[in-house]
Amino acid sequence: MKEHDDETCAHTSYCPYRAELAPRFIGALTKKTYAMVLAGGRGSRLQQMTDWRAKPAVPFGGKLRIIDFPLSNCINSGIRRIGVATQYMAHSLIHHIQRGWSFLDDQFNEFIDVLPAQQRVKEGWYEGTANAVFQNLDILRSCAPEYVLILCGDHVYKMDYSRILADHVAKAADVTVACIEVPRAEGREFGIIGVDEEGRVTYFHEKPEHPAAMPGRPDSALASMGIYVFGARFLYEQLIRDHDDPESGHDFGKDLIPYLVTRNRVIAHRFADSCVNMVGDVPYWRDVGTVDAYWEANMDLVQVTPELNLYDDAWPIWTHQKQLPPAKFIFNNDRRRGHAMDSLISSGCIISGATIERSLLFLKVYVGDYSLIQDSVILPNVEIGRHVTLKRVVVDKHCKIPDGFSAGIVPERDKQCFHVTERGITLITPEMLGQTVHRVR
C-alpha cells in the first residue's frame, strides 16, 4: 500500500486511507470530543420493569446495566469527557454511575458528569432529546470540545466511536448519523433515512407508517441508531435555532435532523464500519425496549457463539463490580443435583439441588432444591424456593418465589397475576407477588 503522511491526513477533509488512520489522528479526534448520553427516558414498553428505574439503569447480561454499553464504548474509543442527561426515576442510574464509573481522573481532564434537568436556562423538565442538550449548553461550552457525540443510553451494542468521528471529518460533514439495516416491517419504530451514492442523507422520516425500502432491498430499511456527530459550534447554533422555533418538538429525530437534511451536509455512517467483534456480516445492535426484546437479547448471550462478545479483553464492558463469592452448585444425587447447562450464572449465586437450562442468572440468585429454571432471565437478589418451575420468564429484582410455584407453563393462568407478552414471556415483579420492596437502587 502507498505510504501517506499522518499529519496530512489530520488536516485534509478527506483521507483515502481512513480505514488505517494513524493512532495520532484518531487520538486527536477523540480528545477533542465530548459525548452526551441521553439517559432520561422511562422506556414504558418494558412495562413494570421501569416502574422504579429508568430504562438505561435496567440490569442486563448478568452483572451489567444497559447504560454500561455506550459508556464503555466511549472509554474504549478514547472519549473520556462524558455527560449523562438523566430525568425519569434517576436515583438508581445516578447511584450506578457514581459507584461504577468513578475511576476517571479529572486531573487528566477525564470525567462523567451527571446532568439532571435543573432549570439552568429557566426551563422545566427536558422536553425532548435536543432540548436536553440545549439546557446544558453552558456546560458543553465550558468543556470547549471541537466535536459533540450524541448517544442514546438504552441500546446494547459495541461500537468504536473513533471511526464515526474519523468518517465525519473525512467527509467534511455538518452532521453524521449512524445507521443500521433493519427489517422493513420494523421500520416504523425508527427514524428511516435515504442516502445517495456518496452516502449523503437525502431524507429522514421519524417513525413513518410506511417505511421506505432500501434500493434493491425491498424487505429492508435503513434506520438511524440515534447516534449523531456534530461540530460543536454548528450544534450550538442549531440548538439555539431549534429552541426559538415555536413549531418544534425539540427532538433530534423528529425535528432537528429532518430540518438539517435539506439545508446542510448530513452524512450516513454504516454501523458495520465501526461495529466491534462483529460475527459474520450482521452487526449486533439491540433496542431492548420491550420485554420480548429484553428477554431475547439476554438469551442471545447463552448461545454457544453469542453475536455479542462479552469475553473480549480488548473491548471490555465496564461496570460496577460488587465483591461477591463465586457461584456455587451443591448436591449430586439422582433427583437432587445442582447443575446448569447452556446458561450464564453470575457471582454470588447458589444453585442448591436445582436444574438451570438455557437461562441467565444475575448476581446473588438462590435456587432451592428440585426446582427447574428454563429459558429464563432472573435478575439480582431473587430467592427461588423448592419445587419451583419457571419457563420463559423474566423475574425482577428482589422477588421471593415461594415453594411449589410455577410460571411460564399456562399463559392464561399467568395473565391473572402477571404481565404476559405477545410472545408468551411472563414478567414477574415483587409487587405482582404481593411483596413489599424498598426500591432505591
Automatic annotation (TrEMBL):
InterPro entries in the cross-refs: ADP-Glc_PPase (IPR011831), ADP_Glu_pyroP_CS (IPR005836), GlgC_bac (IPR023049), GlmU/GlgC-like_hexapep (IPR056818), NTP_transferase_dom (IPR005835), Nucleotide-diphossugar_trans (IPR029044), Trimer_LpxA-like_sf (IPR011004)
PROSITE patterns, sorted: ADP_GLC_PYROPHOSPH_2 (PS00809), ADP_GLC_PYROPHOSPH_3 (PS00810)
Domain Glucose-1-phosphate adenylyltransferase/Bifunctional protein GlmU-like C-terminal hexapeptide: 325-428
GO biological process: glycogen biosynthetic process
Binding site for alpha-D-glucose 1-phosphate: Y126, G191, E206, K207, S224
Pathway noted in the entry: Glycan biosynthesis; glycogen biosynthesis
Catalytic activity, EC: 2.7.7.27
Subunit structure: Homotetramer.
Family: Belongs to the bacterial/plant glucose-1-phosphate adenylyltransferase family.
Protein name as it appears in the record: Glucose-1-phosphate adenylyltransferase
Annotated organism of origin: Sulfuricella denitrificans (strain DSM 22764 / NBRC 105220 / skB26)
